[in-house]
Design brief:
By secondary structure, the chain is mostly helical. The protein folds into two domains: 72 residues; 87 residues, Arc Repressor Mutant, subunit A (Orthogonal Bundle). It has nine helices and no strands. The longest helix is centred in the N-terminal third of the chain and has 24 residues. The protein starts with a helix and ends in an 8-residue tail after the last helix.
């Protein structure tokens, strides 16, 4: 497979996931797409043999660093509706089940967004992106123990709030 074909296959496999990841960090889908584009431009400049053994880790690390850099550079973060990111209709589910799933996903997304940023980010990398503790530790420059702790505390908080339905209480 030529380098061009390889980059195209990597783009097909990771682009959507990286855009969602960057959008969560930046709170802006358009800027997130720009960051992901920059990530793939950097991939094209890298030595394939050096990057390929840890491709997903490399992509998420570069994407995260670029998103944080752009955010700092622009000095502002705008809000992106989490429900818009998470809303997905299932053709197989009944309308009632689909509505219930969207409501539950929306509640979980709100609870996830209410967590401290590092907790939310490690949970997204683990659950949504399927990254290992080791990969997350390298992406975020944390120890694997710290990654495990952040995931544990974050999920515990979400579980407790789901049980008490704290996310549904009126805001004062």
């Amino acid at each position: 497979m030529s380098d061009g074909e390889w980059v195209r296959s990597v783009l097909d496999r990771y682009e959507g996931r990286l855009v969602r990841y960057a959008a969560r960090i930046m709170k802006d889908a358009d800027r997130a797409r720009d960051v992901v584009q920059d990530t793939f431009v950097r991939l094209c400049a890298e030595d394939r043999a050096r990057v390929e053994p840890r491709l997903a880790e490399w992509l998420f690390t570069v994407c995260r660093n670029r998103a944080l850099e752009v955010g700092r550079k622009e000095g502002r973060m705008s809000s992106l509706d989490d429900d818009a990111i998470e809303a997905r209709e299932s053709p197989d589910a009944s309308p009632a089940l689909a509505l219930e799933d969207r409501e539950t996903a929306g509640r979980v997304a709100r609870l996830l967004a209410a967590l401290p940023s590092r907790q939310g980010e490690v949970i997204r990398l683990k659950i949504q992106e399927g990254r290992s503790y080791r990969e997350i530790s390298r992406i975020m420059n944390l120890s694997e123990t710290n990654v495990g702790y952040l995931i544990h505390v974050g999920l515990k908080t979400i579980r407790e709030r789901l049980r008490t339905r704290a996310d549904l209480r009126p805001k004062a």
